[in-house]
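RECORD TYPE: inverse folding
INPUT: structure tokens
STRUCTURE:
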């Protein structure tokens, strides 16, 4: 889902304290129609408070907070800060996940508006807020790969059979086990785009988009994906889409893979940057003569699976610099044109009527008396903190 250009910039400390904020949403949900519209009810402070401080004030809720979104500079420029990092213990992170699991509406908001990775080995929490250009650009690159896979699938050879089992999964979550950690301990990642083979536990190809000030994050992500997957992830593609100083529109491409190095201590698996910051769009926004993105069908599954199902019937998938520029420019134009594009208007006099989310039930006077009595008992027992109390109103109403 493409996010609105008026995206919210969230502080890392705010997401770390997300479990505390959940309790605030309870009150919002119980008051008027603000409840379902989290993006209009939540205000995130920027810049973030120092991650070393408590940061309790970093996230506040209020009905007038949407004004902060409307006036945010990100509505007028691409120069945003959609990534933040903070250290968070496993206990803190687990509490965040538990609280999200208990609040479906808040969880859906976070899934829609926020992507976050957590590395349990380094206790590093990374929060990402994709913007419109980011999402449209990713869609173009992903679609180009899908189109070439579709062409390969149309054949009748071994490559066609292999390609038929490869699927795009956009930002599906990935979980990697942590070396030398208790069983079940895993890190979580949500890449910008990924391609999975039906028979593989991990994606073969992962694509990430970053901005000029976040290039080091791409290399760190590539290392996590490739090494934590034990080289089951075959290729990580990094697309740096600027925007640099002086209005530069330069954009670059990097590709990481793994290599085994012979050392004095034995063989060692490391990452190797096969393509290093190749410029595919220059400062003026024009395509360069550098090679484009080159992948192989065997990249879309781990080596063992590709060897068995594909063998020597490999195929090349290629996206030229001209195409990459076209996708990025189209994404920028699309975002800048918002509000000026064509759309149908309702005919004069036509009114809209929305369905109620929960149809009202007819309640008789006898039911009201029963409910009132149950509510009174529930309130009294809650006040008395009775640990054995269980609300049976739902069960009774169904019997």
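DESIGNED SEQUENCE:
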């Amino acid at each position: 889902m493409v996010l609105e250009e008026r995206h919210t910039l969230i502080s890392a400390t705010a997401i770390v304290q997300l479990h505390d904020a959940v309790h605030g949403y309870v009150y919002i949900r119980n008051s008027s129609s603000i409840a379902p519209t989290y993006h209009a009810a939540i205000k995130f402070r920027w810049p973030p408070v120092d991650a070393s401080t408590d940061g309790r004030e970093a996230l506040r809720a209020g009905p007038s907070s949407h004004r902060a979104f409307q006036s945010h500079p990100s509505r007028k420029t691409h120069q945003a800060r959609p990534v933040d990092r903070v250290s968070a213990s496993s206990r803190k992170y687990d509490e965040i996940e538990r609280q999200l699991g208990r609040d479906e509406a808040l969880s859906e908001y976070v899934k829609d508006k926020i992507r976050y990775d957590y590395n349990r080995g380094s206790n590093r929490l990374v929060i990402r807020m994709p913007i419109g250009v980011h999402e449209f650009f990713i869609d173009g690159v992903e679609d180009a790969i899908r189109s070439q896979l579709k062409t390969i699938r149309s054949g009748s050879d071994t490559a066609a059979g292999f390609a038929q089992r490869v699927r795009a999964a956009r930002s599906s979550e990935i979980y990697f086990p942590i070396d030398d950690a208790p069983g079940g301990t895993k890190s979580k990642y949500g890449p910008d785009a990924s391609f999975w083979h039906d028979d593989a536990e991990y994606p073969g190809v992962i694509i990430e988009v970053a901005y000029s000030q976040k290039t080091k994050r791409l290399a760190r992500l590539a290392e996590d994906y490739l090494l934590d997957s034990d080289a089951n992830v075959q290729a990580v593609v990094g697309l740096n889409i600027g925007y640099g100083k002086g209005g530069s529109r330069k954009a670059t491409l990097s590709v990481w893979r793994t290599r085994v190095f012979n050392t004095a201590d034995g063989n060692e698996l490391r990452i190797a940057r096969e393509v290093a910051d190749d410029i595919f769009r220059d400062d003026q926004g024009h395509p360069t003569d550098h090679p484009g993105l080159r992948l192989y069908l065997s990249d879309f599954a781990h080596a063992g699976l590709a060897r068995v199902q594909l063998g020597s019937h490999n195929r090349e998938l290629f996206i030229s610099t001209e195409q990459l520029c076209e996708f990025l420019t189209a994404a920028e134009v699309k975002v800048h044109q918002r509000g000026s594009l064509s759309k149908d208007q309702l005919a004069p006099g036509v009114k809209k009527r929305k369905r109620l989310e929960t149809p009202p039930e007819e309640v008789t006077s006898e039911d009201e008396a029963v409910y009132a009595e149950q509510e009174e008992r529930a309130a009294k027992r809650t006040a008395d903190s009775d640990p054995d109390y269980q609300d049976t109103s739902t069960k009774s109403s169904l019997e």
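NOTES: The domain at 132-336 is CATH 3.90.1570 (tt1808, chain A).
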